[in-house]
């Protein structure tokens, strides 16, 4: 299944007049505020988000898994799915691989396939939270933190292998997320687990090529329910600093306890130049992996507001961030869900670009709390959709990607091509 530029253009024609009208109106309104809409459109067009290779099939819960049909059965097909997403949205120009779910057996062929879709390889992810069939050591009680040297060595070697695969494909970063922790008090020694983790991460760090970065992800609980070794941003920062200047923290939106002020974490990490990457999703309770922006869009906007501020006031030389969606789709068609997520990310970014930062700073200087809130909400309440549509369509994407996806019966076609009972590797 392919969607050609011509098909997209034909479809766009039916909506061009409407789009021009909405854009014209918004441009005038922004112009009155001294905002150049074209500048924002250009920034949006440049913004690309990596799609995780494990999010293209239906995910499961511990209660069940319901296949959507037509799921990709190999890495080539996964790239083709991302190709479809990218053709429609022009925002999904990268993929993030999880090893060993997606080992590139034929690296050259895989690279060419990705290239034909305009997709590059973002961070590679290691997996030390599941045992593989022929594996001698078990991760049941831990991996990089485990008390047994042989288990830790095995987990370090796996990460080195992931780096090797990434090098073949042109990736420039490794993301480490650990399930290590304890489900019961007394199960493990906190200090020893953390020391082991630091040492293992330092060993992995030694394997990083000079132009690579390592991202250390944190999560408060799950799969362990009493303690997690890398439980929060502070622990992640401590470990990153213990490794060196190529190690950074990674913020996954779902990896926070309810009501955590994530925007403040973003500001703190960027102040230290230690924010490396971002995993987008949304949640109401925990690591729910829901569609980005579906539950807390205002929080997402506030986070982007800090990201934009951090990028524009980059005193600590924070590197440009690795953006990725990290979600598992249990009910929706994963491709439709990813389109919605990409849209939500672009919306929050565009709204954040509208914030009148100098005015906000003045309001803060004057302790004008009301005005500060007004300034943020003025940006948040602007309907920026015409800007996003414009950025997308100028790059050859669809004005309304979901509508076109449905009009072209993409899922039905994928089912015809691949079968109804296919299962993608991943969660
Ligand atoms: C974890 C974490 C990691 C992801 C795995 C699949 O919860 O978010 O980033 O690699 O899930
Ligand atoms: Mn994640
Ligand atoms: Mn997660």
Word description of this protein:
The protein is α/β, with parallel strands linked by helices and 427 residues long. The chain has 16 helices and twelve strands. The protein has helices at residues 5-13, 16-32, 37-46, 75-89, 107-116, 149-169, 190-207, 233-243, 262-271, 297-312, 334-353, 357-365, 369-380, 385-394, 401-407, 410-418, and strands spanning 50-52, 60-61, 64-65, 94-99, 120-126, 173-176, 181-182, 213-217, 227-228, 247-252, 275-280, 322-325. Strands 1-4-5-6-8-10-11-12 form an eight-stranded parallel beta sheet. Helix 10 (297-312) packs across helix 11. The chain is globular. The two termini are 24 Å apart. The structure holds beta-L-rhamnopyranose (RM4) and manganese (II) ion (2 copies). Beta-L-rhamnopyranose (RM4) binds at residues 54, 98, 125, 177, 217, 252, 279, 287, 326, 427.
């Amino acid at each position: 299944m392919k969607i050609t530029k011509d098909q997209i253009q034909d479809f766009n024609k039916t909506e061009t007049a409407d789009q021009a009208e909405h854009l014209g109106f918004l441009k005038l309104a922004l112009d009155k505020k001294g905002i150049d809409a074209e500048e924002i459109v250009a920034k949006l067009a440049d913004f690309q988000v990596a799609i995780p290779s494990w999010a293209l099939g239906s995910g499961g819960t511990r209660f069940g898994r319901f296949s959507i049909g037509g799921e990709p059965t190999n890495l080539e097909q996964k790239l083709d799915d991302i190709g479809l997403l990218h053709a429609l949205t022009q925002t999904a120009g990268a993929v993030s691989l999880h090893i060993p779910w997606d080992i590139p057996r034929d690296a050259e062929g895989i690279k060419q396939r990705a290239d034909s879709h305009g997709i590059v390889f973002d961070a590679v992810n290691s997996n030390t939270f599941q045992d593989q069939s022929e594996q001698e050591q078990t991760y049941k009680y831990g991996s990089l933190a485990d008390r047994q040297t042989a288990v830790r060595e095995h987990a370090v070697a796996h990460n080195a292998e992931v780096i090797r695969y990434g090098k073949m494909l042109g990736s420039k970063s490794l993301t480490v997320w650990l399930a290590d922790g304890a489900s019961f008090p007394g199960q493990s020694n906190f200090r020893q687990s953390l020391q082991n983790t630091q040492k293992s991460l330092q060993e992995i760090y030694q394997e990083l090529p000079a132009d690579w970065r390592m991202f250390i992800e944190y999560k408060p609980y799950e799969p362990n329910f009493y303690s997690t070794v890398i439980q929060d941003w502070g622990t992640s920062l401590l470990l990153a600093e213990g490794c060196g200047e190529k190690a950074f923290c990674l913020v996954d939106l779902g990896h926070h306890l309810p009501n955590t002020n994530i925007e403040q974490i973003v500001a703190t990490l960027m102040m230290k130049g230690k924010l490396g990457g971002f995993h987008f999703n949304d949640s109401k309770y925990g690591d729910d992996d829901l569609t980005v922006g579906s539950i807390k869009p205002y929080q997402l906007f506030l986070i982007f507001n800090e990201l934009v501020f951090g990028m524009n006031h980059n005193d600590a030389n924070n590197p440009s961030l690795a953006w990725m969606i990290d979600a598992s789709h249990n009910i929706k068609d994963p491709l439709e869900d990813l389109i919605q997520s990409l849209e939500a990310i672009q919306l929050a970014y565009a709204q954040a670009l509208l914030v009148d930062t100098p005015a906000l700073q003045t309001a803060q200087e004057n302790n004008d709390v009301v005005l500060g809130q007004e300034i943020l909400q003025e940006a948040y309440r602007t309907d920026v959709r015409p800007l996003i549509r414009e950025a997308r369509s100028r790059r050859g994407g669809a004005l309304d990607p979901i509508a076109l996806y449905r009009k072209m019966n993409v899922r039905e076609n994928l089912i015809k091509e691949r079968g109804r009972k296919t299962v993608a590797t991943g969660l």
